[in-house]
Specification:
globular
Length: about 170
């Protein structure tokens, strides 16, 4: 299984790197890969969120008998396991593939950093939907933009800790 994940990661990485040339002189490859994989996972997240919120939950409160969950939070909770999994594998095998930290430690650290993201998602969704009165999907987009900066920093310097320089390299001949 490990071999399949590594080969898939290499294929995705090669595909992403094919588009890197125009950004070569001003954007580090790792940040470009993070933008590509994170952007893909974020697009998946927002698309699934919209589908779950609008068509599965039909914008209705989810009553579990012992607790009632607002539809915008329930949609987030339903989509999370999917995008957690895809996000971890993309980060591990594509973006931060040079990390030497063991996989189980990466997974635990990823869970910790994502817990921070969940907290921020919850707080921002509550704020934008319930206090600002914005539409749930628009609130999710704004929230995601705010959480991206935290997420990159946490993954780069804690979860996968690659130790690579972040400045683009230039040929000085």
């Amino acid at each position: 299984m490990q071999n399949i994940l590594e080969k898939t990661g290499n294929t995705i990485r090669n595909f992403i790197d094919w588009f890197y040339f125009p950004f070569l002189h001003f954007l580090p490859r790792e940040i470009f890969r993070y933008a590509a994989t994170g952007g893909s996972n974020t697009t998946l997240d927002i698309t699934l969120y919209f589908i779950f919120y609008r068509f599965i939950l039909k914008m209705q409160i989810v009553d579990l008998g012992f607790v009632a969950i607002s539809p915008h939070i329930a949609a987030f909770l339903m989509v999370f396991p999917i995008t957690f999994t895809t996000g971890f594998f993309l980060a591990k095998y594509v973006t931060f593939s040079s990390s030497v930290i063991k996989g189980r430690i990466q997974l635990f650290r990823y869970l910790l950093t994502v817990s921070g993201s969940i907290f921020l998602n919850y707080v921002f969704l509550k704020f934008f939907v319930e206090y600002c009165g914005l539409y749930a999907t628009l609130s999710k987009v704004i929230t995601t933009m705010l959480v991206i900066v935290y997420s990159y920093m946490a993954q780069r310097y804690f979860t996968f800790k690659t130790g690579k320089k972040l400045l683009p390299t230039r040929n000085r001949s």
